Amino acid sequence: MIEVAERTRPPSVAGKVMAILDAFADGGVRLTLSEICRRAGLPPATGHRLVGELTAGDFLERAPDGTYHVGTRLWRIGTRAGAVTGLRELALPHMEDLYEATHDNVQLAVLRDGSALYLERLRGTRSVPIVTHVGSALPLHATGVGKVLLAFAPEREREAVLAAGLPALTPRTITDPERLRRCLAEVRRDGYAVTRDEMTIGAASVAAPVRAADGTVVAALSLVARTRSADLRRLLPPLTTAARALSRDVAVHWRGDAAARRDSA
Amino acid sequence: MIEVAERTRPPSVAGKVMAILDAFADGGVRLTLSEICRRAGLPPATGHRLVGELTAGDFLERAPDGTYHVGTRLWRIGTRAGAVTGLRELALPHMEDLYEATHDNVQLAVLRDGSALYLERLRGTRSVPIVTHVGSALPLHATGVGKVLLAFAPEREREAVLAAGLPALTPRTITDPERLRRCLAEVRRDGYAVTRDEMTIGAASVAAPVRAADGTVVAALSLVARTRSADLRRLLPPLTTAARALSRDVAVHWRGDAAARRDSA
Questions:
Q1: Contacts with B6 from chain A: Cβ below 8 Å
Q2: Are residues B128 and B70 in the same domain?
Q3: A235 FRET partner, CA 20 to 30 A, in A153, B32, B145, B178?
Q4: Do B106 and B222 share a structural domain?
């Protein structure tokens, strides 16, 4: 993937369009025109013209207060993403079963650009409030799904994440690389990961790998519950059962996308 | 919204980029370069160059077989769509409750561009297989959610849909405008809609409106079950209960997006 900032030539119009849309990937849901231009690195006149075109095409929408947000048309195109939709569709029934058995938050994430990218999340009216939403990217070292994805990633990728630094999200986050390496070795040995207050104070999680036909870990499934009341040993059997059932479905139905994923990784 | 085809001037580069991405909105998940160019109405050289830029930016991804699909980056930006994400997040706990009470398909849809656009769908391992997925747009006159959205739409919008024709999806689809008008009057009177085999043979649905603070219907919630075994009278109480609970949440938390929706409609 080519980052806009790494380009030596000035960005093309297509590059500017992508930069404008990218401004919404990590930011607030609503942005003003000047925020969009600043994030995209575009002069106001160019930004104004292109944002106008994107709004006319329903890729962006303009709220009555003058701010912009991602439009329904762009959302709809995004739902066609092969690598996401295929896995999500396979996972949903298993995630439903897991939700029903536990009533905790149920999450599905993949490793993408050095983060845990959340493809789906189910939560109930009684689940502990958590920071993730669908499309969130969270640190690998501080989340249950992240530890699973990191533990089973190629060593080079794992060491690159460790070398990039392990910021403390809470006082309980594992920030020592050697301690994290030992923790990840345990995840590989045990086949699951556990976190307690490491991403959010008050939230604990258990996570398990989802494997493709060749054994490659393609995703992680997790349950997030209240640290105080969660009996993680009780959560583990339904979680690993659902992760294995999903792995069987992935092995049968998801070869093409798994290949695409490895190809693009 | 300005359709590309309606423009009198040749499309700008931003317009071409949108046309390429739009090629994936209604088509297959995977498209060849020539399919993309044909759908976007672009000469091969232009299409090749822009698809290459979009692939380098991870807006599109290229599979090992040379086909393209929507990239994870574009999916992620799409998840930030204000009008969709806000409503979906509010609806999900209520949809979970509904799934748990019934084990049938649970769907959330809004009226968009004369179709029922499905924002979310939960389904279990035992639910009846249906044609919708998240991001699908289905005919209003043949679906439960569609009948609700159409019944409570402004009369001008409703008559425009009826005037555009009512194609038969199955032999049971209501194709007579006068009969559909009577059916929609019943939906307004009863506060719910029913379909039996009208979109897919074997599938029946009940649907109820989701209202904003001012009473405007902003979405529809539905249950889809097997026609043969579904007792729709049994499904109605949990459905209308969940739709009312979601309406209360929407009334409190969703004013901004409701305003944006009306503004853009």
A1: none
A2: no
A3: A153
A4: yes
Nearest to B124 by CA among B93, B92, B102, B94: B102
Domain co-membership, B114 together with B9: no
**Which of A13, A64, A71 lies closest to B81 in CB terms?**
A71
Instruction: Name the least confident of A122-126, B119-123, B243-247.
Output: A122-126
Residues B55 and B133 placed together within one structural domain of the fold: no
Pick from A121, A179, A117, A120: which is nearest to A149 by CA?
A: A117
Question: In the beta sheet, which residues pair with residue A110?
Answer: A117
Enclosing H/E stretch for A109:
strand A105-112
Chain A residues touching residue B125 (CB < 8 angstroms): 93-94, 96-97
**Whether residues A101 and A217 fall in one domain:** yes
* A112-141 residues touching B, CB cutoff 8 A: 112, 117, 122-125, 127, 133-135, 137
Residues in A touching B99 (Cβ below 8 Å): 96, 100
Structural domain span for residue A245: 82-264
**Domain of residue B63, CATH code:** 1.10.10.10
Q: What is the DSSP letter of A5?
A: G
Q: Is the ipTM of this complex over 0.90?
A: no
Do A115 and A39 have their domain in common? no
Count the alpha carbons within 13 Å of A59 in the hemisphere toward its beta carbon: 29
If asked whether residues B72 and B88 sit together in one domain, one would say: no
Number of domains in chain A: 2
Which of 150-189 (B) contact A at CB < 8 A?
none
Residue A9 identity: R
Q: What is the pLDDT of residues A175-224, one digit of tens each?
A: 999 999 999 999 999 999 999 999 999 999 999 999 999 999 999 999 99
Q: Which candidate, B87, B61, B122, places its Cα nearest to that of A91?
A: B122
| Residue contact B63–A256, C-beta within 8 A | yes
